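Chapter summary example.
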Amino acid sequence: MKIQHFISKFIILTCAGFLLAACGDNAGHHDETSHRESAADDDVKKGPNGGRLLEDGNFAIELTVFEQGRPPQFRLFAYENNKPIAPEQVKATVKLTRLDGEQNQFSFVSEADYLAGDGVVTEPHSFDVAVTANYKGRRHSWQYPSYEGRTNISARMATEVGIEVKPVGEQLIEQTLDVLGRVEFAPNAQATLRARFPGKILEVTKYEGQSVKKGEVLARIESNESLEAYTLKSPMDGVVVNGQAHVGDIVFDTPLFVIGDLKQLRVDFHVYPVDLKKVRPGKIVRIQSIDGNITSQTELEAYLPSAESATQTMIIHASLPNQDLNWLPGMTVKGTVVTDNTLVPLAVRTDALQRFRDFTVVFAQVGEDYEVRMLELGRQTPEWTEVISGIKPGQPYVTGNSFIIKADIEKSGASHDH
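The structure predicted for these 418 residues follows.
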C-alpha cells in the first residue's frame, strides 16, 4: 500500500510539473496532437504536397487538408508509379469517425490537378480515417488514426488530480457595468436640531458618535427671555452625527445637533452619459466595499435631475439595507449593475477555457479520453461564456483543473499533421 501511495503521489507531482511548464507557454500557435499519435508520426510517409502518402502497390494517393484563405478542405492527389494521375480518373471517398462516434463522409470532384472534398473538415482535426479510392477498376482502401489535442487519463487518476467534469448546457448570462458610489444618509434619515429660543446652554447629555433614542434629552438651554430652562430632544432613533453644543455657550439659531439613522442609508452612484441607457432605475446593483469585505444587493431608484459639474456624471440613488450597521456614511463603494440577463442555449465556465494553437478551447470528455473542442464564443462574464458553436449540447467537458489536460497534451510535442 505504501508503494502504491508513493506512485500515486509521484504521478500527481509529475502532472503538476507539466502544469507549471504549460502555464509558462504563452505562444499564440501550437502544433500538437495526442501523445498516442506522436510516436507513430515519425513513420508517416509524406507526399510531394506535404500530405500523408497512402500506398497500395504501384498506386498511391496523397491526402492533404488545405486551409489557406478558405475553410479546411480535403485535397487528394493520385499517383501511379510515382507519377501524377489525372484526377478525373480516380473516384474517392473519405470517412472520418470522431471520438464521440460522429461520422463525416466526403466525396471528391476533380479540380485542377487534384480531387477536392465536398465539405469542410471541421475542427478538431482528430479522428479515425477510412479512405477508399477506385482506379482502373480496382478498389484501394486504407485506415489510420489521426489524432490531435487528445489524451487518455484513467478515471482513478482524474479523481486524484482533481479533474472536474460537467455537461455543457443553457445558462443565464449577466451583462454588468461597474460604477463607483458614496454612502450617504437617506433624505428622511437625518434631523438638524437648533435652539428654539436664544439662550445659554446649561447641560449637554449627548455627544458626537453616541447613540440616541427617540425622545431622549440631548441638551438643556436657559431662555434669555423667560430665564426658564427647556430641553432639546431627539426626534428619532439614531446616532449623533454632528454636535456643536457646549455648556456655557450662548446660542441663537445655529445647528447644535445632527441626528442620523444608520439603518436608513443610500448610495449615490456616478454614471457617465454614455452609460445612461444601460444603467436605469429598477436595475439590480451589487454593492461592495473597496476592500471587498462587505457586500449587499439592492435596486437603482432615480437619477438626480442635473449632472455633477466637476465630473459631468449623472447621479443615481440606490437604497442601502443596513440592519447590521455594516455600512457608514462617507464610505466609497463599488457597484456592479446588472444591465442585461440573457438565457443562452450553450455556455461554458470561463475558467475552463484554454488556448490550443490559434483557438480558445475546452476539453470534452468521452469515457477516459479528453479532446479539444474549438469554440466560437459570444458574451462573456467572469463566471460564464456563451458558446456560439464548437461543442454539442450535453457534452461533458472539463470544468475544474482543465490546465492539467492541456499540460498532458502539450507534453507530447506532436504536430498538427494531416
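To summarize the output: The first strand starts at residue 52 and ends at 56.
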